[in-house]
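dude i think i finally got it to work??
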Amino acid sequence: MKDYKIAPSILSADFSRLGEDVEKVINSGADIIHFDVMDNHYVPNLTFGPMVCSALRDYGITSPIDVHLMIKPVDRIIPDFAKAGADYITFHPEASDHIDRTIGLIKEHDCKAGIVLNPATPLSYLEHCLNKLDMVLLMSVNPGFPGQKFIEGTYNKISLVRELIDKTGKDIRLEVDGGINLENIAKVASAGADTFVAGSSIFNSKDYEKTIKSMRDLLSQVS
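look at this
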């Protein structure tokens, strides 16, 4: 079976007890903690910054943290998130003046680098940088708000990116973010994804452990 990773997004967590809630979801079987960082500029919402990442590390969270930067310009904040404890930092190519430089900046700060493609962003952005990436994140909703419905056209895009990744022969994770739930996670995996951002479907469930186990059971049936 593939090395599938489940990455709950703290955008849907209980911020009145964030450390406790994140610890609970990790103890329930989550692999990666996903940060959706929004600036009310690149996307129409405002969320949180490096201090929240640092606070979770101080609380004792040791699991990998995957920081998805929906901010423009993006380079200024990368060193701050690296210092705060990020493991992965992903960004939107439209938010960078020089994509190759931004990838280099992330790696200079000892983090794994990824590019994020919105539903209508072309795959051509990967043509000259895929070999330098550790992750490709495909948005299956338009970024900016939690709880949106999965865009069906994403399945074909996942398959196309999987082909590109496989041709490189490199260990590049293919993550999908937006509307992932028990009804579609197996189909998303069948299309070629190996990392699944799930916010509302996990944090809004009554039993995190039961929900994550159900996701893993579905993933175990994907050939």
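The mean pLDDT is 96.
im so relieved honestly
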